[in-house]
Amino acid sequence: MPYQFITNNAQLNQYCVKIANSNAIALDTEFVRTRTFYPHLGLLQVFNGEYAALIDPLAITDWQAFLAILNNPTIEKYFHSCSEDIEVFLHFFGCLPTPIIDSQIFASFLDNPISSGYASLVNKYLNVELDKSETRTDWLKRPLTEKQCDYAINDVLYLFPLMNLLKTQLTKQGYLTAAYQECQTVIKRKCEIINPDDAYLNIKNSWQLKGKSLGQLYKLARYRYNTAKQNDIALNFVVNEETLFKIARYSPSSLAELDKLGMNGKEIRLYGQAILAILLEPIPDIPPIRRVNSYPNYKYIADKLKQAAQDIAEHTGLNQDLLLSRRLINQYVKWQIDKTDALPDILSGWRKPLFEKYIANEQ
Length: 363
Fold this sequence. Notes:
The chain is an alpha/beta fold. It folds into three domains: 4-190, Ribonuclease H-like superfamily/Ribonuclease H (Nucleotidyltransferase, domain 5, 2-Layer Sandwich); 196-280, DNA polymerase, domain 1 (Orthogonal Bundle), CATH 1.10.150; 292-362, HRDC domain (DNA polymerase, domain 1). It contains 16 helices and six strands. Helix 3 links the parallel strand 5 and strand 6.
């Protein structure tokens, strides 16, 4: 199918007029994120079932018409595996397309793996084999080759018929509403903003530290996160996570000691003095990190949920990995202990009628 390569504001405005009354549009992004905190958008692909376009974000300055389409709730936005795309839109456009429908999530309700790739689904449902040889393209480099552009546009050309087929099958099996709900749940979770004060919780093995060492990690992780975000540098290019853990544990007092713990010359030159200063600041009293699997009856509850998911999968044909994940188990166990107002996912939405009879005595 022919497509338009949009490289100026006038072309974009004209294209937006063509697709403004669409029921749905397929969207994808190509970006670069090797050493940066944020993804850097290099190309935007759009298709409404009739008009296909590649939009060069490096050449566009007026996005008003396109933003109106992104924010139009009557136009569904089709993506495949939208997690990283969400980050791109939130950073580059300052908004989230709404509503988002994810073909990977929809396909998982039809007994496909929950992480099914776009190419595998296109092959399975449309009998088309896609060329994925341009995956490692530097999408910020110009000019793009014809092969690169063809690769990029294919990511939306087949998404439209794929979604139509998935919707049809989900309607027949009675899971279309559940698939829509799951999209909303996943997208809401992906949009959660990390609090810099919680950055230490994402450091591997942080639970092993206590007292002074944990307080140091809290300060260091917050500094690393804020520095990375402010300077658009990937977290591990400020200080490697493993090294940060060691610094918190051993509280070095000199640049030489930072070097021995694993900081390289550039990191020491840029951040060494700041880190040493942070280590000398008052140490906050941070409660020990309680691992979820240390909660009372964790194994008993987890095993019961896994058995429930297995039984549900056998009776419904739904993918067991879709029904239950470690995250959902941990969320439920923490809710059992903390009894917060927000219900865990397995007791709300489409999972509730499936799980509630299995865990009625556990609530």
